Amino acid sequence: MPVNRNALIRYRTIDNCLRNRYRKWTLEDLIDACSEALYEYEGIDKGVSRRTVQMDLQLMRSDKLGYNAPIIIRDKKFYTYEDPEYSITNIPLTEQDLGKLTEVAGILRQFKGFTHFHELNGMVQRLEDRIHTAKTKQAPVIDLEKNDKLKGLEHIDTLYQAIIKKRPVQLSYQSFKAREAQAFTFHPYFLKEYRNRWFVLGIKKRRQPVLLLALDRILEVGESHEPYLENDGLNLSEYFEHVVGVSVNPNDGPEEVELFVNRDNAPYVLTKPLHHSQQLVEQLGNGIIIRLQVQLNFELEREILGFGDCVKVLKPHKLKRRIHEKMHNAAEQYDKELNLSELEHSITKVKRRGYAVLENLYTSKEVGRILSSINRATENEERFRRSEDLFAIRSLLQEIPHLKHLLFNTNLCTLVREGFGADYFLTKAIYFDKPPRSNWYVTWHQDVPVNVKEKVEKEGFSGWTNKAGLVSVRPPLEYLQSAFTVRIHLDDTDEGNGALKVIPKTHFSILSDEEIAQTRNTAESKCCKVQKGGVHLMKPLTLHASSKTENHKHRRVIHLEFNNRELPEGLDWLEREVV
Length: 579
Hints:
Elements: H1 5-19, H2 27-42, H3 50-61, E1 71-74, E2 78-81, H4 95-109, H5 120-136, H6 156-165, E3 169-173, E4 182-194, E5 197-203, E6 211-214, E7 218-223, H7 236-239, E8 255-262, H8 266-271, E9 279-284, E10 287-294, H9 298-305, E11 311-315, H10 317-335, H11 340-353, E12 355-358, H12 364-379, E13 392-393, H13 396-399, H14 404-407, H15 410-420, E14 425-433, E15 442-445, E16 450-452, E17 462-467, E18 470-474, H16 477-482, E19 484-489, E20 500-503, H17 513-522, E21 526-527, E22 535-538, E23 543-546, E24 556-563, E25 577-578
Antiparallel strand pairs: 1-2, 3-4, 3-7, 4-5, 5-6, 8-10, 8-11, 9-10, 12-22, 13-14, 14-24, 14-25, 15-23, 16-18, 17-18, 19-22, 19-24, 20-21, 20-23
Helix pairs in contact: 1-2, 1-3, 4-5, 11-15
């Protein structure tokens, strides 16, 4: 009885469900699971009918496919296996199957000594081990590396046949960076495997660059009726000769790479070379120096980084610098990890004194990405083009929406949810810069106004303003007391470049101008020095000011305000964003 691929996917899905004893499975649950599996593996989105799954269950119970699955129904509703150890994948091979496999293994074994069939060694051993296991009922004694969950393996045979028969294919392909899939005709020439991941090499059109496509990113393979473009110049046997992995730049030649490998790891590198060009240059007391002739690519970097501090790049300098940068960035991810006890202490300090400083919330790489994103967004926009005079972007996340995922990293999300509370949301985002040539000072003040979408008169809300379409209002005291401010510092900040000064314990009430003047003349202020990547926490009512920049350095800050109070009906926060 022939069984198509879709049916096999359904049988396997039902089998996985019924083996899961931690959940009860109704017929509707099985229908949903089969529908999701077919969509994931085959792109079929029309679902599975009730009758189809019922027929599948009946067939699995029968002997037609040799399953004889012990499927029972409990409580007249829930499907399960009567035998908790049963699975359709555990069905023993018949004597006839074993006989045929033994013959096949014998035939393949004849080719194991030939140079062109060295790659068969693993297959023959695995096949012999499977036959031995089935015959003797013993546990397997060989386990070759595999990844059963890898997507795209179902396309290997189709692409292989297309290459052999010299036929183009119609692909639906979506790279990790693409927002949506692309459909195009592809002329395949070569299949390549690297670390259990498969790739196909070919071209779209004549005189276009060679493409290497990952099979796990191929959504669909279909027939194409275009004439096949044969390979006329690409030496497939040498294409990957000078690379570790699969990333090839056809315009670059190999470079001389020298690596120091410490004594503990030297035997592993000597017995399993990183590349076929590897040579031992020098044997040292504490390790070895090896030389490779390879292109510099992602896979080479990953191989080196995989050894951690056991391998050091000696040359070329650009590779040495890049590995150093990646190691530094990796170390920063551990160094700049928010400590919950430190967070708790800082939140307590903010509530009592009105401010606190938390260092190491952003890595250097994260700060760089934030600044690059702001620079790219502003350099070609006329409303932002003020040359050296650019100093603020209000409604920041509305102006540059993709900044949100850069700002709300793990540390900031933890800060808001664990420090402020899970019900807090963003109400305001501003970018400030004190450039060396555009300088100003800010007098002592409290951050009292909040921004709303439009003016709607409400009791307790006063002091309405509308500046260039930005509607602001002074809310009742409780809104300001519940708010928190997070100032993300994108530069090292101290007195020299206008660090914020605060007067502690001034955040409990809204002060009049006379009270502010009296407080600034009698109370002691504190300068809030913050390193790049750190944050300054503050209650908005805390009196604060800043001086002019004196050291000709930028002081770039992203000012975020959070609250957990909803505005009265009719009023809406202008920049409300859920964390």
